[in-house]
Design goal:
This protein has six helices and no strands. With 194 residues, the protein is mainly alpha-helical. The protein is rod-shaped, with a radius of gyration of 26 Å. Helix 1 packs antiparallel against helix 5 and helix 2 runs antiparallel to helix 3. It has a domain of 106 residues: LemA-like domain (de novo design (two linked rop proteins)). The relative contact order is 0.14.
């Protein structure tokens, strides 16, 4: 065989191998990012589901508390207002608006729980006690789902930033996702006027 022909065959085989490796890397990276993005979306849906559960529970808690709390009406009105704001944010579908409304509602619910725990007649009411337990359970579920969502966002954002995904991710439309962060001052206990 002619040495020029061997060289041409080697070059063609090398180009084909490099092309196959590049295609596998390219499409493999794309598929990985799609999978991670789907996971983030699933985790966000889980967060929304537990937020909706709490949203549906709040009127029951407020109604039960109204029977016992006469002069804490401003807290109950605030919870109702914050619940409406959360519902409005939910209809927009904007994750940042939902996160902000959720943080505000979290603070209001924390204040309500503290106030309710300060009333002995509320503590003795089985209905209110059960509702508080359900509400606290909802808060725990929300916390768990937030942690899972943030973990999925961390995995997704990390995968976006490493080679070779960092070369193509933005061009494919894979944008950085935001973490579900606590609002400013969330680390402080709620203030209760007594």
């Amino acid at each position: 065989m002619n040495s020029k022909l061997i060289a041409v065959v080697i070059i063609i085989v090398a180009v084909i191998v490099v092309g196959i490796v590049f295609a596998m890397l390219y499409f493999g990276t794309y598929n990985d990012l799609v999978g991670l993005e789907v996971t983030v979306d699933e985790k966000w849906a889980d967060v929304e589901a537990v937020l909706q559960r709490r949203f549906d529970l709040i009127p029951n808690v407020v109604d039960a508390a109204k029977l016992y709390i006469e002069y804490e009406g401003s807290i109950l009105e605030n919870i109702t207002r914050l619940r409406s704001q959360w519902a409005a944010a939910q209809t927009t579908g904007n994750e940042n608006a939902i996160v902000n409304a959720t943080s505000n509602l979290d603070a209001g619910i924390s204040r309500l729980i503290v106030v309710m725990e300060n009333y002995p007649e509320l503590e003795s009411s089985e209905i209110v006690r059960d509702l508080i337990t359900e509400l606290e359970g909802s808060e725990n579920r929300i916390s768990t789902e937030r942690i899972r969502y943030n973990g999925a966002v961390g995995d997704y954002n990390s995968a976006r930033r490493v080679f070779p995904a960092n070369l193509w991710a933005s061009g494919w439309g894979f944008e950085t996702r935001e973490f579900f962060e606590a609002s400013i001052g969330a680390d402080n206990p709620p203030a209760v006027i007594q």
